[in-house]
Design a protein that fits this description.
The chain is of the alpha+beta class and about 240 residues long. It is about 45% helix and about 20% strand. The protein has helices spanning about 10-30, 35, 45-100, 135-145, 190-200, 205-210; strands spanning about 105-115, 150-155, 155, 165, 170-175, 175-180, 180-185, 215-225. Helix 1 (about 10-30) runs antiparallel to helix 3.
């Protein structure tokens, strides 16, 4: 049978020791008062009795001082623990924001869904009726300009290092090959994104002039986009911020 030991936080051991020592001193202080409260007769006026009383008073004062010191140390430990918790919370929030900007976390929200697909029309120039990497790039750029906060192409999250290229009928999103239909999903304000994409002169209208059936666009009031799963290694770029 495997026994699993519980791992306690590092701060628990010193706080426990201080609490135990404080309890021991309190008990010791209480026992020191015991003989005087038991009803035994006191020897008032005798020199030995006055000396013992003074010694007991000094001992009690010393224990009171020790107890007060321990209380202060416990308070300091509690404050230090609270400060560490606040710092850890701030650090975690900053880390999550950085991961969100780098597209390293799954996100959800409203937005639009654009479907680009090859035309079924017959032509002497079939190249014009096929969706290429350049079509995807221009739509993605227009979405960024319109305020999109996160974009995925055929469920591949777009990051700052995502590249697009064509090889025949295949479009590569990063290293992932996709083909028509290309589904571009963007999180942002649906009305703003829809309005920006459908404005006269925007790129979707150029595709529609070739064949209106090559473009579909829909508002979505809740979508979930996956996290970026490509490489995050930087071989040449280095931060200029000195390490602390």
């Amino acid at each position: 049978m495997q026994i699993n030991f519980v791992k306690f936080p590092q701060w628990m051991m010193p706080v426990t020791l201080v609490a135990l020592l404080m309890g021991f001193l309190l008990v010791s202080s209480h026992l020191s008062y015991g003989p005087q409260s038991s009803g035994a007769p006191r020897m008032y006026g005798a020199p030995e009795g006055r000396g013992a009383g003074a010694s007991l008073a000094r001992s009690l004062d010393e224990k009171d001082n020790e107890i007060n010191k321990l209380r202060e140390e416990i308070t300091q430990l509690q404050n230090a623990l609270a400060n560490q918790s606040r710092q850890a919370k701030v650090l975690n929030e900053s880390l999550q924001e950085a991961k969100l900007l780098a597209a390293l976390t799954e996100v959800e929200g409203p937005g639009v869904e654009i479907i680009l697909k090859d035309s079924e029309k017959q032509s002497d120039n079939p190249w014009q009726y096929v969706i290429h990497d350049d079509d995807v790039i221009r739509v993605v750029n227009e979405l960024w300009l319109a305020g999109a906060e996160a974009i995925a192409v055929n469920n591949q999250r777009i990051s700052i290092t995502t590249a697009f290229r064509c090889e025949g009928p295949v479009i590569y999103v990063g290293r992932v090959p996709i083909s028509s239909p290309v589904v571009i999903r963007a999180i942002g304000d649906p009305e703003t994104l829809m309005g920006a994409l459908n404005m006269p002169g925007r790129y979707l209208n150029e595709i529609r002039t070739v064949d209106p059936k090559m473009v579909e666009i829909h508002k979505r009031y809740k979508m979930v986009l996956p996290a970026y799963t490509g490489s995050t290694e930087f071989r040449h770029a280095r931060s200029t911020v000195p390490k602390q």
